[in-house]
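Our preliminary data section would be incomplete without showing what the modeling component actually yields. Below, a chain of 415 amino acids is followed by its predicted structure, encoded as tokens that our downstream tools consume directly.
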Amino acid sequence: MNLIFAMMFSVLPMDVRVSMLDGSVRSGAIRSVDETRVVLADAAGDAQVSLSDVMLLEFSDLPAEETEAAQRMQLRDGTVLSGVGAGRNAREVLFTQPMLGEIRVPVDAVQALRIKAADAVLDSQWDTMRSRQTEKDLLVVTKRDGTGLDFLAGVVSSVQSDKVEFLLDGETVPVPIARVYGVVFGQGVQESGKSTASKVRVTLRSGDELTGDRWTMSGDRFELRMSWGASISGDVAGLQRVDLSAGRLTWLSDLPVLREDFTGVDPEGSLLAGLASPEEQLLLFGPRRDVAIQGRTKLKLRGKEYSKGMCIHSRTEVAWALDQKYESLEMQVGIDDEVAWQDGGQHSVRLIVRGDDGVLFERMIAGKDEPIPVSLPLTGVSTLTVVVDFGDEDSICDWLDLADARLRIRQGAVE
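Predicted structure:
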């Protein structure tokens, strides 16, 4: 399979779509990536893009990598790998991923190892066991009647092709590998301070995901330095996407709110005021994250959908604690397409954005208006407040989207 991908790469340029932190997009054939820059080739020749400005690289579509790898290893840093030949010795977990080859991971970096192939009935039980906080290892076995999973708590000293050696109450018990569904490794074996912060998430065409702190590429090979310090390399043709946004930006919709005040959907004194209780109004028209007010569709402005952002109805005030960690806020603002053209698009809201006690942005926004790109400096700002107020003393069509709203993290700030 690796040979097939290598041959495809040799005859097809590896086109890549590069999403920048400022919201712009560049495309071209990727030449190389080092610690400071991405080199792209387009009709005008080679162009260099600063890696510090890149959020996401999405590689051209190629057939998905077919693999019979049935086992799965999940690491504490979020890495998920499918493979075969799982094993464990005193210090390492061994695993062979079809594209990356043999991988050796320190035991304290591994969260779980599923030895059996995925099972639609048993996997939900496995996920429950995998999420448990435990100091001891959990040896997860299939019940003899095949109806479910059970586990024993102890120490898994080794995983071999035919058995798992399990230390239970001071005695080593060999468990046939045929009975073992997987192993959840206890957190007690972790050593503090060994892992570095994950800044890169690499998604392979197999669906596997790897996280690390540095990713580079040269020719048809890439290299990723993993959280425990070792590097893994593979064929570029096996890449689907490389996400570099960690430590660089935070989506506004993912940031915990400091305060959220929903005053009510109808202005005081209007005919509809008071017909619904505050609780009912909040349930129906309270702020939404990553979806429109009615909660079933993505945010959409003039035909373009956005997977991230806020949809806020008047009259609402939302505040976030920034603690001076961010340097800017970028977003597209407008009335959501779901309601924008009701009554000819004449209805409007007033948007006010404050940084601490100062007004950073204020504008009336009508349904007929095109999306408005907004870029606001946030250096030194401790609290960000967004107010969506009645613009025309009416609440009709007041679905204001803060689409693709992203906070750029100040260099050197700690998340």
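Residues 31 and 39 are 5 Å apart (CA to CA). Helices lie at 2-11, 123-130, 278-285. Preliminary results of this kind motivate Aim 1 of the renewal.
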